[in-house]
Design goal:
Oligomer: single chain
Order of helices and strands: HHEEEEEHEEEEEHH
Number of helices: 5
Distance between the termini: 48 Å
Structural class: alpha+beta
Strand content: 15-25%
Number of domains: 2
Length: about 220
């Protein structure tokens, strides 16, 4: 089928609503529902009762940030959904993530007379706060999960094509709920949930391959054992 673009999504969604032009001309409901579905899917830690955190490797990225002497924070990347890790490239080590309550308990957290090499961080709002306050210029690599941008025209999603049908199902569900077509909405929700579960089971296989587990050697797998 090739790359599914935003315009393709709208065409497919429009078919599911009987090619109703009233939902497109001047209102762009189809486009809104597609982007709502895309955003919903990529910002939820759990989805519709599926008890597993979603991980989209395509949305994990990094940005370089430079500390300033006496400035106790660096700015969070503008497209950051949440921060994964902060690494000090200058000193070659990983900073520890601490709770906000611990950071606020430091009486020297913004004291420019008590400075050093940062060893801890906490993200709050638009900033990543460091402790201790940097005493020099250091290069930090901020690893984070980014937010997706709204789709337009010939844009394709930033995640794998295996999610395209699911985005369409979720968009249909959102639209059906808006139109008060509750029974049909349930069907598309169930269909999307089943497809998501199938993809997550494949991701679980990747997770198992990434980690070491104790396994019985296949040569010893025998009904007698």
């Amino acid at each position: 089928m090739g790359t599914v673009t935003f315009d393709n999504f709208k065409t497919y969604l429009k078919l599911r609503f009987g090619n109703d032009d009233n939902l497109d001309s001047g209102t762009n409901y189809y486009g809104k529902w597609i982007n709502d579905a895309y955003n919903l899917l990529t910002t939820q830690q759990k989805f519709w009762g599926l008890r597993r955190r979603f991980r989209f490797p395509e949305l994990e990225t990094s940005a370089s940030k430079t500390t300033s002497d006496g400035t106790y924070y660096v700015e969070t990347p503008t497209d950051c959904l949440y921060v994964l890790q902060v690494y000090d490239e200058t000193n070659d080590y990983l900073l520890r993530n601490i709770p906000l309550s611990k950071y606020l308990g430091y009486t020297d957290r913004s004291n420019t007379s008590v400075e050093g090499v940062p060893t801890e961080w906490i993200r709050s709002g638009a900033n990543i706060y460091l402790h201790p306050t940097p005493d020099a210029t250091y290069t930090l690599t901020v690893h984070y999960r980014k937010r997706v941008t709204a789709l337009t025209g010939t844009d394709a999603t930033a995640i794998g094509p295996e999610w395209d049908d699911i985005i369409l199902d979720i968009a249909t569900y959102i639209g059906k709920m808006y139109m008060r077509q509750f029974e049909e909405a349930k069907l598309f929700k169930a269909e999307a949930t089943e497809k998501i579960a199938g993809i997550l089971s494949l991701y679980d296989q990747e997770e198992m391959a990434r980690n070491e587990y104790w396994r019985i050697d296949e040569n010893y797998i025998d009904p007698g054992y």
